[in-house]
Design the sequence.
């Protein structure tokens, strides 16, 4: 295992519930995410994409197997900062404006209020939603909310960005624009990314695709699929 | 948690309402039954001159509701004389009563046998003491117009109800002496007939003493009206043959104003509690309204009609309301048993059923109002998108735009000022008049002040959050550091829910504080009352003309546990035709034995008043009423008639009016006089004190017991201690029920204050679990999440408690002023229940800390697990 690896997992298994009600979401997943990786995690709904991303982000713990972040450190060092996450559903904090939401990871990391607000506004401009900076989450559309969520995931210049269906509420055209913007921004900050999607057109812009089906992860993708 | 909270809120409201029903019903019924049971003879029918006793007895016996009637003869005597140990003792005028053989068993409570036989020639204890007589002593009875009769004493008795037994029937109040005769002898009716058959005209009268059937209305007012009506009916039937001395009505007369005060206490102390419980339930429902809206939005996107949504809400409301009502009634039953010794909600089955039905309707109504109405409103007016909104647009409510809070405070203040600026009484129950006047307008004062202060609290809380974001950020900076701005912004945008929580907490604190202050002030005044009634820690009194033994004070001073013992004369003096109690004191030493409160004297300076009295030997302090009635000015000559030892007759004595005494130990409330003991002794030729006031350092009952044993049973003196006296005072009509009510209120206030703070905060925080989970997923450490939680908790708790304390104190002040009639004497200042406040503060702090810690503990779960669960 390379010390440069951002995430390294071996034989990961995740089971929800217990006994007869137990549901296996992930089976024997082994993988490595390295610096600069651009990975699309493709699979149908309920295949285990979100579960895998949550484990990679350290937001959840595996039932079996090991997961490490060699280039970052222990799980407690992941956030705020090195690893960020963009959620699938609405995830902006309702009582905070869009710019306050985007600035929040910086504030949690100890940055000053003015610098955090300035960086947040800049990031919102990059995602073309600078005009909604001072609105509350309930005053913007679902698409704008998702873009704000992506902006918030990147504003702290993380080393790994994990995004769960970041374009789920966008039309194809806007989704393509957003993904292009995301990748460009990621290039600027030098972050690796894993984006979960069931949209093949979104996955097409990523050089690497992992597939997941009924909890089984396949990290080697046939060239014909690319 | 939401459903449990709502159920609990309904249960608290129902329990409180039903408990108040128990208090209300039981107190009224108890007041009536206590009044009835405390009267030894319900009616004393005084026969008019020339009326036929047998005929009158038949008419009285035949009157509806009369269970028993017996004739009693009253004969005047010039006095009694007894000789023994080489001296002859003579008393002043007295009365000789002729009683049927079974009188004592028919009217228990009228005669208490002390020494000797229960029949024959019985001497009243005081008379025996005056004569130095005992069983076997031969007493000469002066009979007007006849030769003295010689009788041998067979027993000594006490007449506990002498005041009513010797009342002047059918004369205008104040036109006859109110004190019972000093000298009384009881004879069998046959012996009395023999002795006074040829008595001079006008020196004997006959009364028919009667007992009424116990079935009276539970309400003292209704019972009073019924008894008065029956008495008038009997007088009409007697057609001038007799007048009714209505002891029962007199007793019920006092009880009915107590009943009105109980009603007012119900309104002042009970209703706010029920309203608060309702508001608490409403706040619990409101705290979860955003979540309910989101659920509704989900249902609507899946095709549920508004009607269906309202039906589901109604089902939830009925389920939570039903469980809450059942739980509340159960708790009320248990509370009733503990506080009022009954688990019935009324004096009768119908009353109990009414309260149960009312509590059930109230509980279900509350549940429907707090769940269905908002759901119906949301289903009709909100779009799916709007329903998903968590913050919402901040509209300025109508009351705020109309400044209703300030209008309520101003109007309440005006009504209060109007009410208290003159000599004001909220309840006016003129003696003997069946109707009671209650100033209901005055009741609006605390109500308006309560509503106004709640709305003003809301305005201040909202304004503070809306406009004070910078100040809040500054306040939180030491704890929240870089997050202070975000925390302040977050709080500012959630001002509606935070203000609601703060107001609720303020109302709960205000309720608890006002009830606590009222209770403590009442208890303090009860102690003052007991002190005033008893005179000192221990008091020794005698009605004997010879007074207490001259050596008693010195003997008592040497007893263990006695700090000081001061003698005091208790005489009667005529001011014009008005017979008043006169107390002869030594102004320099009286304060050693009993506290001389400034409130006792006009001008509020006890020391100065006593110095003025001491400065002039013939000085006299007079009651307010007498000064007013006789138009006295300081320095005026006041000729009082006092009984002289030389001839037992009343003679005019010159005094000079020097000041007003409002209260004095052992003195009656209305009119009395305070003079220098030395001067009274000099002019009357009698220095004997009738009272000894004793201050103790140990247990008053123990000191009282040792004085009692030192004096002996036949001394004729009564020894009372303040501990026992207070127990008797607190067993009075209003007091016993008020104790139950305040105990109930204090517990409810505590529960609601803790519930309002803990539950509302917990529910508010629980509604934002997703927010905290997301913040946690973004990397917020526990300490950072804690800044969000504790800043909200601190704002609500400190703001709520501070504003609540302010309004609670104000409302307690107004209630105490308005309900002055409940206090005897009125308090000089409010008493603060510090220990209760400490418990209250601890309960609120514990609830707030528990809610906050619970929330933070919940965030320690993996963030995604929380997000998934939500």
Sequence:
């Amino acid at each position: 295992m390379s010390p440069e690896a951002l995430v390294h997992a071996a034989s990961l298994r995740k089971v929800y519930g217990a006994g007869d009600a137990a549901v296996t979401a992930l089976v024997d997943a082994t993988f490595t995410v390295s610096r600069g990786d651009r990975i699309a995690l493709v699979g149908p709904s309920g295949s285990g994409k979100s579960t895998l991303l949550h484990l990679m982000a350290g937001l959840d713990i595996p039932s079996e197997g090991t997961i490490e972040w060699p280039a970052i450190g222990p799980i407690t060092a992941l956030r705020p900062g090195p690893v960020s996450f963009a959620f699938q559903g609405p995830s902006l904090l309702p009582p905070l404006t869009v710019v306050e939401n985007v600035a929040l990871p910086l504030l949690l990391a100890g940055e000053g209020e003015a610098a955090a607000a300035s960086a947040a506004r800049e990031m919102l401009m990059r995602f073309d939603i600078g005009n909604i900076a001072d609105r509350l989450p309930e005053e913007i559309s679902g698409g704008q909310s998702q873009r704000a969520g992506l902006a918030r995931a990147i504003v702290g210049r993380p080393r790994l960005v994990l995004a769960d269906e970041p374009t789920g509420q966008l039309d194809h055209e806007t989704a393509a624009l957003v993904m292009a913007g995301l990748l460009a921004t990621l290039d600027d900050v030098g972050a690796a990314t894993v984006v979960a999607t069931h949209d093949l057109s979104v996955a097409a812009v990523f050089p690497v695709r992992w597939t997941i089906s009924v909890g089984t992860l396949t990290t080697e993708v046939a060239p014909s699929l690319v | 948690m939401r459903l449990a909270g709502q159920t609990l809120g309904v249960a608290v409201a129902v329990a409180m309402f039903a408990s108040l029903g128990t208090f209300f019903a039981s107190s009224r019924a108890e007041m009536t039954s206590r009044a009835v049971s405390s009267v030894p003879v319900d009616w004393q029918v005084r026969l008019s001159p020339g009326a036929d006793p047998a005929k009158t007895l038949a008419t009285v016996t035949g009157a509806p509701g009369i269970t028993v009637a017996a004739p009693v003869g009253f004969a005047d005597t010039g006095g009694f004389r007894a000789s023994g140990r080489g001296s002859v003792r003579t008393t002043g005028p007295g009365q000789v009563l002729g009683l049927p053989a079974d009188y004592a068993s028919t009217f228990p409570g009228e005669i208490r046998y002390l020494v000797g036989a229960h029949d024959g020639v019985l001497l009243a204890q005081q008379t025996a003491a005056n004569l130095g007589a005992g069983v076997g002593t031969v007493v000469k009875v002066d009979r007007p117009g006849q030769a003295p009769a010689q009788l041998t004493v067979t027993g000594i008795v006490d007449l506990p109800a002498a005041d009513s037994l010797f009342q002047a029937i059918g004369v205008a109040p104040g036109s006859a002496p109110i004190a019972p005769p000093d000298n009384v002898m009881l004879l069998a009716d046959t012996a009395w007939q023999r002795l006074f058959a040829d008595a001079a005209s006008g020196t004997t009268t006959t009364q028919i003493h009667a007992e009424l059937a116990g079935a009276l209305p539970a309400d003292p007012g209704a019972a009073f009206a019924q008894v008065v009506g029956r008495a008038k009916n009997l007088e009409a039937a007697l057609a001038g043959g007799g007048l009714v001395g209505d002891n029962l009505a007199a007793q019920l007369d006092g009880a009915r104003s107590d009943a009105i005060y109980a009603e007012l206490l119900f309104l002042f102390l009970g209703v706010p509690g029920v309203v608060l419980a309702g508001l608490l339930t409403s706040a619990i429902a409101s705290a979860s309204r955003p979540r309910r809206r989101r659920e509704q939005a989900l249902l609507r996107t899946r095709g549920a009609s508004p009607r269906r949504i309202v039906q589901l809400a109604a089902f939830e409301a009925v389920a939570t309301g039903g469980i809450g009502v059942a739980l509340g009634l159960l708790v009320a039953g248990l509370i009733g048993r503990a506080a009022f010794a009954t688990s019935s909600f009324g004096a009768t089955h119908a009353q109990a059923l009414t309260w149960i039905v009312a509590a059930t309707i109230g509980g279900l109504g509350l549940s429907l109002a707090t769940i269905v109405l908002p759901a119906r409103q949301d289903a009709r007016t909100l779009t799916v998108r709007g329903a998903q909104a968590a913050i919402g647009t901040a509209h300025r409510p109508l009351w705020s735009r109309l400044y209703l809070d300030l209008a309520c405070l101003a109007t309440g203040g005006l009504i209060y000022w109007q009410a208290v600026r003159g000599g004001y009484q909220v309840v006016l129950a003129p003696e003997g008049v069946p109707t009671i006047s209650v100033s209901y307008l005055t009741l609006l004062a605390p109500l308006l002040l309560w509503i106004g202060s709640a709305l003003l609290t809301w305005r201040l809380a909202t304004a503070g959050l809306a406009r004070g974001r910078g100040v809040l950020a500054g306040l939180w900076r030491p704890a929240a550091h870089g997050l202070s701005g975000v925390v302040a912004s977050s709080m500012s945008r959630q001002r509606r829910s935070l203000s609601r929580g703060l107001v609720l907490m303020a109302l709960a604190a205000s309720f608890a504080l006002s009830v606590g202050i009222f209770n403590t002030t009442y208890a303090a005044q009860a102690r003052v009352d007991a002190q005033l009634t008893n005179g000192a820690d221990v008091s020794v009194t005698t009605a004997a003309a010879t007074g207490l033994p001259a050596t008693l004070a010195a003997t008592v001073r040497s007893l263990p546990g006695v700090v000081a013992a001061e003698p005091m004369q208790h005489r009667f003096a005529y001011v014009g035709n008005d017979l008043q109690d006169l107390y002869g004191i030594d102004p320099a030493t009286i304060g050693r034995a009993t506290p001389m409160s400034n409130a006792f004297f006009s001008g509020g300076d006890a020391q100065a008043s006593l110095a003025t009295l001491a400065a002039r030997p013939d000085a006299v302090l007079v009651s307010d009423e007498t000064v007013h009635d006789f138009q006295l000015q300081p320095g005026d000559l006041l000729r009082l008639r006092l009984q002289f030892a030389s001839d037992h007759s009343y003679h005019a004595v010159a005094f000079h009016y020097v000041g007003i005494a409002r209260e004095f130990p052992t003195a009656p409330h209305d009119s009395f006089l305070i003079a220098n003991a030395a001067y009274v002794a000099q002019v009357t030729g009698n220095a004997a004190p009738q009272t000894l006031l004793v201050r103790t350092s140990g247990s008053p009952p123990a000191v009282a017991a040792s004085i009692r044993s030192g004096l002996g049973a036949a001394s004729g003196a009564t020894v009372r201690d303040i501990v026992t006296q207070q127990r008797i005072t607190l067993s009075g009509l209003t007091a016993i029920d008020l104790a139950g009510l305040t105990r109930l209120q204090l517990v409810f206030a505590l529960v609601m204050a803790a519930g309002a703070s803990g539950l509302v905060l917990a529910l508010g925080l629980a509604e934002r679990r997703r927010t905290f989970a997301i913040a946690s997923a973004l990397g917020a450490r526990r300490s950072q999440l804690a800044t969000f939680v504790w800043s909200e908790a601190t704002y609500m708790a400190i703001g709520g408690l501070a504003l609540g304390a302010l309004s609670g104190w104000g409302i307690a002040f107004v209630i105490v002023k308005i309900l002055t009639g409940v206090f005897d004497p009125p308090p000089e200042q409010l008493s603060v229940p510090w220990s209760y406040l400490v418990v209250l503060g601890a309960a609120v702090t514990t609830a707030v800390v528990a809610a906050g810690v619970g929330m933070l503990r919940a965030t320690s779960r993996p963030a995604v697990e929380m997000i998934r669960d939500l």
